[in-house]
Every structure is written in C-alpha cells, then in structure tokens.
Amino acid sequence: MSRFPSVDWFDEVRAVFNADDSYRGAGGGTCNCTAGMKIGDDIFVLTFEGIECSRAVVADEAALDDVDFYLDMPRGDWLEMVKNIAANGSADLHHTLNTLDLDREDGLATSHHGDQYREDLFFRYNQTLQFFFNASARIKSEYA
Amino acid sequence: MSEAVDTANDYELDLGWMDRTGPWNTQASQGKNGLTLADIQIGEYGDPPVESDNQTGRPRGAASRDSTYRIGAYAVRSKSEIWLDNASFLYEEALQRQWSSATDVPWHTIEPLPDDVEQAECQLATFLTEVEFVAGDVPARWVSLTTPDFLEPRQVLLAQVMDESRHMDVFRKRALANGGGLMQATGATSGFVGSIDLSRDFTEMSSRLHVSGEGAVLTLFRMGELMAQNEAEKVIYRLCAQDEARHVAFGVMHMRYMSEAAPERREEIHCYLDEAEGGLIGAANPVGQLTPTSESMAIILGGGKENFDDGMNKIIAIRQRQLREYKKRVVSAGFGDRFESGRSKVDEMIERAAA
Predict the structure, then answer these.
(1) Rounded to an integer, what distance in angstroms lies between the CA atom of residue B159 and that of residue B135?
(2) CATH number of the structural domain spanning residue B161
(3) Cβ contact (<8 Å) for A116 and B93?
(4) Is residue B45, in this structure, part of any structural domain at all?
(5) Contact call for residues A63 and A36 (beta carbons, < 8 A)
(6) Quick one: angle between helices B308-332 and B266-280, nearest 10?
(7) Does the residue B185 lie in any domain?
C-alpha cells in the first residue's frame, strides 16, 4: 500500500499502467511528454515515453519550468479526484481531468512557459493521462 | 508429344530494372517505438527538396523513369508551403492513437434524457457532423495537390482525413442513438467553415482550418466532455479532442516553419489570420454569437431550458478561454507581433466576452 502523494504511489500506478495493453488502444497509445503534478505544496514530474510512463520523481517549483504542462490543484481537490477514481474504478463524470480543467476558474493544466503548443499536449494525450490516473483504482492507496 | 508452345527460345529475361535503384545498401533501424517514419528519414531518402519538380508520382528517393508522363497537377511543390518539422512524429502518433467509434465508445451507458436536453445534444451532433465534413474534404483535396516528395505532411493529412471521417460518423451515431435524430442543418458549411475550401494556398487553408477552425472546435470538444450526460459522450468528446489537438499541432508547426523559411510571406499570413479571427466571433463558431448551436450548448451546460442563463455564463467563460488559447497558439507559431502591434482584435474580443 502506498501513500498518495508520493513517488512510491506514482511508481505503483506506473507499474499497473505500463503492464496493461488495454491502455495502448482505444485512443491511448504513444505519448511523449513531461507532465508536472502540483499537489498542494508537493511537486512530482512524470515522464511519458512511447507507450510507457517511464519515470516519476519528486521535484521542486523550478522543475516546472521544464515540463510541457503541469496539473495544479489544492491537495484536497487532488484527494477528492483520486478517491473518486478508487471508489468508481475510474473517474466519474465530474472528476475527469478535462472536466476538472474546464470546471475550475483557474483551470487544472497550465505551464510556466506559456507555449500553447506544449500546453496542448494535455489535450493531445488526454486519454492516456486519464488511463494513467484511472489505473490508480487498481492499487491500494492511503491518503496523506 | 506435348502440344504446349515452346517459348523458351523466344524470350530472354530483361533484368535491367535491377540496376535502376534509389540509393542502395540502406538499412534503417527501428528505435524504441518500432520502425517509425522518422527512422527511415535517412540519407537521400530523408531529404526532401526545397523545390520539387516531381510531377510523376515518383516516390521520393526512387529512381526516375525516362519518358514518364505527368500524372499529378501538383500545385504544392515548394517545401516551405507545406512543411513542418515534426510531421513524421505526428503521423506515427495519429496511427498509434486511433480509436473505433463502434467499439471504444461505451454506447450502453446512454440513457434517455429530458426532451430539451436530447434535442440540444442532437442539434450539436448535427452541427459537428457538418463541420467535420468540411474538415475531412479540405485536407483530402490538398493531399492530391501536393507532390509526393513531401510525403510526411501528406501522410499526416491523410491520417487527419481518417480522423475526421470517424468524427463525422461518431456524431451521426450519437444523434441516432437515443431516441432523437438529426436536426436541421445549421448552415455552418456555407459560412466561415465552408469558406476554408476557397483557400487558394495551402498555408491559407491551414491557418483557417488547423489553427483557427480546429482550435475552436478543440475547445468545443473539450466543452462537450465537460457537459457530457453519460460515459459514452465523455469518451466521444475526449477522443475527438485528442485528434483535434493533433490537427492543431500540425497547423501551428507548419506556420512556425513557414515563418522561418519564407519570412517574405509573413504579411500575407497575417492577412489570413485577420480573416480567420473574424470567424472566431462569427455564427459558425458555436461559442461565438448566439445561434441554435450555442443555444443548444447552453441548454446542455445548464441542464435544461430553465437553466439557460447558467449555461450561457459557462459558455462565455469558455469562449474567453478559447480566444486566449488561440492567441497563445498564434504566438507559438511565430506571429505574436500581431497582438503587440494591435493589429489583432482578439484582446478586444476577450474583453467583450468578459463584459
């Protein structure tokens, strides 16, 4: 059992995500980007290469300068999202990444660099990112 | 005695074709993602000409034939007219991220909706079917006008045609899947959307279709995911948005290349953008002026006719976002000076949308 948020938690999700071929079809598939996760004050950077999420590391605010985009929510909202996924097996209608992005005044996905071409990767790979977080329903989590 | 005609002495093998090859001893190696288009861009095979005189359909790198007649009226023969640096990457991405509207959408999750919401869903589906018709037809025409020497962008455009074909069928399926049907055609194809097909130049077409038009539709798809009434609609809109984002990426990267490779055409491209930005507030943009389509979206977002105003407020917020994203894409494409000089009216549009 891993605690959310932590590198161990992301590594467990990565293991499930990388091992399941079903995430590579149905609109999933090759995905190349670096995505930051700003969970309250905690920051992680995930690297997606080809059909895998190859790395998850803890990072600091400066690291967000280099990612293509990052997802930024207060810790409580992150917890609500991952708990919703755990309870339903996948995000329900109100907790998908895109819905959270449009439903929030400040959005969910953003960047330091402001380059929309790179920010658009959040849209281009949205199903893969959703598959990734949905995979978290298949691990046992505890919440910080 | 056999009655078969003995031809052994009449013909000799002509193996002269074996000496007519492109660069030989070529050995492409696959990378981490398999043998991709980028992996075979090696040597002369990977080197498109700046100007192409190939009018015969000869694959790039193949040996030429004498006395071959012309088969293609290729209007696009200058690299800067169509090139982008990541075309092979986008093509592989398009191939690997395909989906099926028949089996990847959980159609069983669609349940009866209130009549006004179902009618609004069907109106939106009708509009999107119309729009995607244009988005498929137009790039297909430009593929046929482009020399085979620029195969990478051609391949991306062909993949786009497949994407748009799927979008056309998935929204038609949605309209027919829940007790409703298609609504009255909105006429979008005779407005700004239809005018894309009047473009006389590929970059003109791409700035209108990929950057302005598909950028707007990308926002619309994302909004569709937000306002989905069930998992099937969530998936439809999310997957369409992914495809659309790839098409937008094509346009942004082409404009970026064009800006650097043919700076003498920048003013011309600014003129295309002037026109395209007019379309952002036109009736063909469903989050622009009040049309049956934007009304239907407000009904869906609000959850029914009685909450129309709530829905419209959400549309206005998303419209601002659509315009901001458009602006940032144009900046990313290398044409940010139009905002600094005041030539673009997008900032005013954003302010008006907020008022």
Answers:
(1) 12
(2) 1.10.620.20
(3) no
(4) no
(5) yes
(6) 170
(7) yes
The verdict on residue B44 lying in a domain is: no
**The domain containing residue B170 runs over which residues?**
79-354
pLDDT tens series, chain B, 355 aa: 567 776 666 678 888 889 888 999 999 999 888 999 999 999 999 999 999 999 999 999 999 888 888 888 899 999 999 999 999 999 999 999 999 999 999 999 999 999 999 999 999 999 999 988 888 889 999 999 999 999 999 999 999 999 999 999 999 999 999 999 999 888 777 666 667 888 888 999 998 888 888 888 898 899 899 999 999 999 999 999 999 999 999 999 999 999 999 999 999 999 999 988 877 765 555 555 657 888 999 999 999 999 999 998 888 888 888 899 999 999 999 999 999 999 999 988 888 776 6
Give ∠ CA A84-A31-B214 in degrees, rounded to 5.
90
Residue A94 contacts residue B229 (beta carbons within 8 Å): no
Distance CA A73, CA B108 (A): 33
Strand (E) positions, A17-138?
33-39, 42-49, 52-59, 69-73, 109-110
Q: List all residues 6 or more positions away from A37 whose beta carbon is below 8 Å from its beta carbon.
A: A5, A10, A43, A44, A45, A46, A70, A71
Please state the ipTM of this predicted complex: 0.94
What does the domain layout of chain A look like in residue ranges?
2-137
Choose from B97, B212, B220, B328 for mutation: most chain A CBs within 10 A: B97
**B239/A119 CB distance under 8 A:** no
Question: Distances from the Cα of B79 to the Cαs of B198, B207, B211, in angstroms?
Answer: 22, 17, 20
Tokens of residue B338, six digits: 């139009």
Size of the A and B interface in Cβ pairs below 8 Å = 99
Query: A40 vs chain B: nearest CA distance in angstroms?
Result: 24
- Tokens describing residue B64: 């030429």
| Domains held by chain B: number | 1
Alpha helices in B181-336 (DSSP H): 192-195, 202-206, 214-226, 231-261, 266-280, 292-302, 308-332
Say if domain A2-137 classifies as CATH 3.40.50.740: no
Domain contains B46: no
Question: Is residue B286 reached through a cis peptide bond, with omega within 30 degrees of 0 on the bond before it?
Answer: no
Q: Residue B234 and residue B247: Cα distance in Å, rounded?
A: 20
Answer whether B231 sits within 8 Å of A119, measured CB to CB. no
Amino acid at B152: E
Residue B212 contacts residue B135 (beta carbons within 8 Å): no
